[in-house]
């Protein structure tokens, strides 16, 4: 161990879902772990998904049976381990016979129901739509099946929290700018992106889990040629006023053979997405284009009675998916599976790089990556994450926890109870500790966001900016009015 520099078993580069998942698993097996993220946790791809824990029904059309089976098997494990930020959801698929025949859909849904064991989620069925529903009258028949919803950014934060509880060091706003390989260890230079201050640490192994930056990190920090290139595909979403009042989501078929989801979102809204557009450039600067907005609105307007205009879009976001470059011409056919590249030539300190992946299989990916890591660390612990409850998830169901919190804090508004339960679960009590009235929550900023929660997010969840708080830790940015964000900014500057 160096007398000058802190030493770790593993340095994980990247604070998205794959990086935090690996840090959590490795720390839980007894390894000394440092995770560095150059921005905020989940600041790129991992907070810009369709918010689904799903097998990927449409992947069956591309014969990705192994990926679908793997994802389906993970759904119920994840739903059990995180009942606050995940919940089952039913999806309705209007039938349009000129796009896909009914037998094809039935076959796909049969496979979807049976490729993996299913205990929590009900199976698929045929349904009829009536005139009182949100769809256009010509939509009379359809299908219904099960998948899951997830608050993607909170999943990342909770995985990082679990990693920290297991002993990992989590450093946000910290960029890996250089890594030199010695005979037995890496010497790694980390730069604070807020102050530009640098520090050096050493590690036996590095995991490159930097998502869209996984290939570029080789040239920028590792002085090596990337073993694989990734294919960057931009997926954009829009948030509009709620299109249906039921709890079900809709999966809409389109003439280009793609599908678009319409998902109930934050009580008052619908989340619509996604697109598949080839992307070049800085992944952090991805933005939705007018063409993408119109594409999503056109599909919605083809199906729903309520007709939307671009002026109805309340918020939009875009994320860049780092897909394995399998040379498919069509972006939607590119695989969503993952792969590892292990570089440990001639017994040198190892480098493991993660290519591809999707949120639903993050735990399996992390487990497989940590298995590889453990080959270099005798005495490392065994697999443990399949039944690991994420922080705040130690309760049976949301309704019971809501009832319990209402009894303990009868002055707490119902809307705040609901949001706390689905955001923090039992960690809500940490925010509410010793509060006996709404005034005890401190300054009100906007929506249902109060000073107590802001302080908790800064102290316990690595939040620094209003964007971290309003769009990743909570979704209260949807309710922000003129001047309210500035008040939060001013408060944070004084912390």
From TrEMBL:
<protein>
    <recommendedName>
        <fullName>Glycerol-3-phosphate dehydrogenase</fullName>
        <ecNumber>1.1.5.3</ecNumber>
    </recommendedName>
</protein>
<dbReference type="InterPro" id="IPR000447">
    <property type="entry name" value="G3P_DH_FAD-dep"/>
</dbReference>
<dbReference type="GO" id="GO:0046168">
    <property type="term" value="P:glycerol-3-phosphate catabolic process"/>
</dbReference>
<dbReference type="InterPro" id="IPR031656">
    <property type="entry name" value="DAO_C"/>
</dbReference>
<comment type="similarity">
    <text>Belongs to the FAD-dependent glycerol-3-phosphate dehydrogenase family.</text>
</comment>
<feature type="domain" description="Alpha-glycerophosphate oxidase C-terminal">
    <location>
        <begin position="385"/>
        <end position="489"/>
    </location>
</feature>
<keyword id="KW-0560">Oxidoreductase</keyword>
<dbReference type="InterPro" id="IPR038299">
    <property type="entry name" value="DAO_C_sf"/>
</dbReference>
<dbReference type="Pfam" id="PF01266">
    <property type="entry name" value="DAO"/>
</dbReference>
<dbReference type="Pfam" id="PF16901">
    <property type="entry name" value="DAO_C"/>
</dbReference>
<dbReference type="InterPro" id="IPR036188">
    <property type="entry name" value="FAD/NAD-bd_sf"/>
</dbReference>
<keyword id="KW-0285">Flavoprotein</keyword>
<keyword id="KW-0274">FAD</keyword>
<dbReference type="GO" id="GO:0009331">
    <property type="term" value="C:glycerol-3-phosphate dehydrogenase (FAD) complex"/>
</dbReference>
<feature type="domain" description="FAD dependent oxidoreductase">
    <location>
        <begin position="9"/>
        <end position="328"/>
    </location>
</feature>
<dbReference type="GO" id="GO:0004368">
    <property type="term" value="F:glycerol-3-phosphate dehydrogenase (quinone) activity"/>
</dbReference>
<dbReference type="InterPro" id="IPR006076">
    <property type="entry name" value="FAD-dep_OxRdtase"/>
</dbReference>
């Amino acid at each position: 161990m160096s007398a000058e520099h802190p030493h770790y078993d593993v340095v994980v580069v990247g604070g998205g879902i794959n990086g935090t998942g690996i840090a959590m698993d490795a720390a839980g097996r007894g390894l000394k772990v440092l995770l560095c993220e150059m921005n905020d946790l989940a600041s790129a791809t991992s907070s810009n998904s369709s918010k689904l824990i799903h097998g990927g029904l449409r992947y069956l059309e591309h014969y990705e049976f192994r990926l679908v089976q793997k994802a389906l098997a993970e759904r119920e494990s994840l739903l059990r381990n995180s009942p606050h930020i995940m919940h089952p959801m039913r999806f309705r698929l209007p039938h349009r016979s000129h796009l896909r025949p009914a037998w094809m859909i039935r076959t796909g849904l049969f496979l979807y129901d049976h490729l993996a064991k299913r205990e929590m989620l009900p199976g698929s069925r045929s349904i009829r739509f009536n005139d009182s529903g949100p769809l256009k009258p010509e939509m009379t028949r359809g299908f219904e099946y099960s998948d899951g919803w997830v608050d993607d950014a909170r999943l990342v934060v909770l995985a990082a929290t679990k990693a920290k509880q297991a002993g990992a060091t989590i450093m946000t706003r910290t960029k890996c700018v250089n890594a030199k390989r010695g005979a037995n260890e890496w010497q790694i230079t980390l730069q604070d992106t807020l102050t530009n201050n640098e520090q050096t640490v050493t590690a036996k192994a590095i995991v490159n889990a930097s998502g869209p930056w996984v290939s570029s990190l080789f040239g920028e920090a590792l002085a090596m040629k990337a073993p694989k290139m990734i294919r960057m595909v931009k997926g954009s979403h829009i948030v509009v006023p709620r299109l249906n009042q039921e709890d079900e989501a809709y999966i809409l078929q389109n003439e280009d053979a793609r599908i678009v989801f319409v998902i109930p979102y934050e009580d008052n809204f619908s989340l619509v997405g996604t697109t598949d557009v080839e992307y070049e450039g800085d992944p952090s600067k991805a933005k939705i284009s007018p063409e993408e907005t119109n594409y999503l609105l056109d599909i919605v307007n083809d199906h729903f009675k309520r007709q939307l205009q671009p002026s109805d879009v309340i918020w939009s976001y875009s994320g860049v998916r780092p897909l394995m470059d399998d040379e498919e011409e069509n972006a939607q056919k590119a695989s969503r599976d993952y792969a590892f590249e292990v570089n440990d030539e001639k017994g040198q300190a190892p480098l493991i790089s993660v290519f591809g992946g999707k949120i639903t299989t993050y735990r399996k990916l992390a487990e497989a990556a940590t298995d590889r890591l453990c080959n270099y660390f005798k005495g490392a612990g065994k697999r443990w994450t399949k039944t690991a409850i994420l922080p705040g998830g130690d309760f049976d169901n949301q309704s019971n926890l809501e009832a319990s919190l209402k009894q303990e804090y009868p002055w707490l508004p119902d809307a705040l109870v609901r949001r706390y339960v689905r955001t923090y679960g039992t960690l809500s009590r940490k925010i509410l500790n010793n509060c006996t009235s709404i005034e005890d929550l401190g300054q009100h900023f906007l929506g249902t966001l109060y000073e107590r929660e802001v302080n908790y997010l800064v102290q316990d969840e690595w939040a620094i900016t209003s964007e971290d708080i309003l769009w990743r830790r909570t979704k209260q940015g949807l309710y922000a009015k003129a001047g309210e964000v500035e008040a939060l900014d001013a408060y944070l500057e004084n912390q």
